Amino acid sequence: MKTLVTGGAGYIGSHAAIELVAAGHDVVVLDNLSNGTRAAVEAIGRLAGRDVPFVEGDIRDSACLDRTFADHCFDAVLHFAALKAVGESVAEPLRYYQNNVAGTACLLERMAAHGVKTMVFSSSAAVYGDPATTPINENCPPDPKSPYARTKLIVESLLRDTHAADADWRISILRYFNAVGAHPSGEIGEDPAGVPQNLLPFVAQVAAGRRERLNVFGNDYPTPDGTGIRDYLHVVDLARGHVNALDYLATRTGVAVHNLGTGRGHTVFEVVRAFEAASAREVPYRIAPRRPGDVVVSCADPARAGDELGWTAEYDLRRICEDLWQWQSTHPHGFRGIKA
Ligand code: NAD
Ligand code: UD1
Predict the structure, then answer these.
(1) Minimal CB count within 10 Å: which of 54, 153, 188, 245?
(2) Ligand 1 atom 38: the closest Cα is on which residue?
(3) 126 Cβ inside 6 Å of ligand 2
(4) Is 160 buried (19+), middle (13-18) or exposed (0-12) by CB count in 10 A?
(5) 297-323 b/e with 16+ CB inside 10 Å = b?
(6) What pLDDT sits at residue 271?
(7) What is the DSSP string of 174-241?
């Protein structure tokens, strides 16, 4: 199979590209480098043992997409390209709708024009908002709380409508829980621009001495130690899920929705302790006010992915922290090599 990976120069897409090549796919990466790096694409080639063609281009650029689809005979598209910062999406909603929604509409249109009707889409657990029950299964009614999360839910509708109009489409919607960790080689990982907004990258930079201390956003939640609980999923497990999703689509048309998570939740303090053990470094912290918009618990029910995709997460929190530390300690300033 030949697969186009949009956003493949970014964090999750680069890991997925490696897993795809390992599973025997030919891969082409398309990315506008708004958050991804050329260095990540080069690392994919090294780790996959084969050069991966790279198109620097935008999913909103029809002419670029037409050229790319004409140059390669794709069977499927893995669609990671998106803007993903929740806070930024509140401040700049139109940029998010433009990029994530209009961008996906443009991509789908060009795919249809070239007869490519198989897509795996990166959705998010953020579409669930703050559900009343936990763990969260795919039937929980969506209730997105930010423009970012709404772009994901709107794209899900766009995909359903696309299939309703043309039953040949094969679409997999994957709702990721918290993607964390790095490739075990330590060669690729998350490379946040500026101050990390998410827990694991921040903790890793504190352990590396790049930041003084972690702010723990609230220790008075109704959880065993008072801090928020999340379902942290190793990025390689997540990447493997995309290979399973493509296999699943090989035998059926339609629109499928699957949670990708471990089904296990960890508190902020559990993460801090696990990271201290993995890095043999201290992670100083202080208790800060709750972060507006945070939910208490977010944990996946991944049973459907297990039953239908044959996928389950293999790596635990210890392994997540070890692999992240390997990446952080060998690439203290990520791919960019720039101090934030
Ligand atoms: P990332 O920013 O590292 O990767 C996204 C890539 O898409 C970047 O390389 C960026 O340059 C590229 N891109 C953005 N807009 C583009 C455009 N218009 N045209 C071409 N390329 C474009 O983010 P990530 O963490 O790897 O996330 C990948 C996908 O997974 C995103 O769709 C994100 O919303 C989704 N997701 C991520 C998480 C997470 O925990 N990181 C959780 C849920 C969902
Ligand atoms: C974030 C996104 C969400 C996305 C998810 C997965 C926000 C508001 N939400 O949520 O849309 O789907 O990642 O990528 O960005 N924490 C601290 N100190 C920090 C950072 C985080 O205590 O410096 C705590 C948080 O309060 C939370 C936990 O750590 O309890 C995890 O936070 P984070 O990594 O930002 O993920 P989410 O909140 O799940």
Answers:
(1) 153
(2) 179
(3) yes
(4) middle
(5) bbbbbbebbeeebebbbebebebbbbb
(6) 98
(7) EEE-EEE---TTSS-----SSS--SHHHHHHHHHTTSSS-EEEE-S-SSSTTSS-EE-EEEHHHHHHH
Residue 131's pLDDT is what?
Answer: 86
Q: Quick one: tokens of 94? A: 């139109």
Of 47, 84, 69, nearest in space to 2 by CA: 69
- 97 flagged as catalytic: no
What are the tens digits of pLDDT across the range 37-67? 999 999 999 999 998 999 999 999 999 999 9
Token couple for 193: 């621009």
| 3-class secondary structure, 57 | coil
Task: Determine which residue's CA is closest to atom 22 belonging to ligand 2.
Answer: 216
The mean pLDDT of 295-314, rounded to a whole number, is 97
pTM above 0.85, yes or no: yes
**Residue 190 region, left (φ>0) first, then alpha (ψ -120 to 50), else beta?**
beta
Q: In Å, what is the CA distance from 205 to each residue of 40, 186, 213, 281, 335? A: 19, 15, 9, 11, 14
Residues with CB under 6 A from ligand 1: 6-7, 9-13, 31-36, 58-60, 80-84, 99, 103, 122, 124, 176, 178-179
b or e along 261-290 (b: 16 or more beta carbons within 10 Å of the residue's beta carbon)?
A: bbbbbbbbbbbbebbeebbebebebeeeee
| The one-letter amino acid at 258 | H
- List the Cα angle 153/175/268 in 5-degree steps: 115
Position in ligand 2 atom list of the atom nearest CA 228: 30
Task: Indicate the DSSP class of residue 128.
Answer: G
Distance 84 CA to ligand 1 centre (A): 6
Catalytic member of 96, 148, 221, 315: 148
